[in-house]
Amino acid sequence: MPRGRKPSSNPEEADSGKKSRVRFIFEPDRTSPNGITYSWLIHGTYKGKEKAATATRAFWLPFAYEASGNHSEAELRDLAQQSIWQMEAQIQHLREKFGIGVGGSSLATETLVTSESVSTVEAEGTVQLPPMPAPDQTALVSTQEADLLDEFADVL
């Protein structure tokens, strides 16, 4: 669909075989973490746009499908499992590429709080959470690294 053109409300034009499209324009500064990442994906790797789309879907597709209300719980669970497998494969790729072993502290080994692990005391109206492990002091992220992560997360 040409830029600036609105979707037609004419049923004949809508049925003419043209697909409805989502246009996504993202123009980060080339020297920012987002700019460096997307420049490399688009210009420095094979099928970079597809890789970016795959990564986005792995993170967010199950949530988008859930919000659509058009999918069963079983379909959503299967989709979430596929997303987890994609992300786990990427984690393994990162570990192998950059020589990072499975360390002592990782989100995968921490105690996660789920809706099932939270006990509600209705009489007092309070929620009791299981004890959280003490933070690993060696795993703290510097302010500069946190800023980079926040900028990267802003694109998603």
In a few lines, what is going on in this structure?
This protein is mainly α. Helix content is 49%, strand content 4%.
Q: What is the mean predicted local confidence, pLDDT?
A: 73
Helix residue percentage: 40-55%
> Beta-strand level of the residues, as a percent range?
under 5%
Which series of helices and strands comes N to C? Answer: HHHHEEH
Topology, number of strands: 2
Largest sheet: 2 strands, antiparallel
Across the major sheet, the strand order is 1-2
Total DSSP helices? 5
pLDDT below 50 for ≥5 consecutive residues: which ranges?
Answer: 10-14, 110-142, 152-156
What's the structural blueprint in terms of helices and strands?
Blueprint: H1 11-14, H2 33-44, H3 48-68, H4 73-98, E1 119-121, E2 126-128, H5 143-155
Antiparallel strand pairs: 1-2
Detailed description of the structure:
- With 156 residues, the chain is mainly alpha-helical.
- It has a domain at 18-100.
- The chain is built from five helices and two strands, in the order H-H-H-H-E-E-H.
- The chain has helices spanning 11-14, 33-44, 48-68, 73-98, 143-155, and strands at residues 119-121, 126-128.
- The chain has a two-stranded antiparallel sheet.
- The longest helix is centred in the middle third of the chain and has 26 residues, at 73-98.
- Residues 10-14, 110-142 and 152-156 have low confidence and may be disordered.
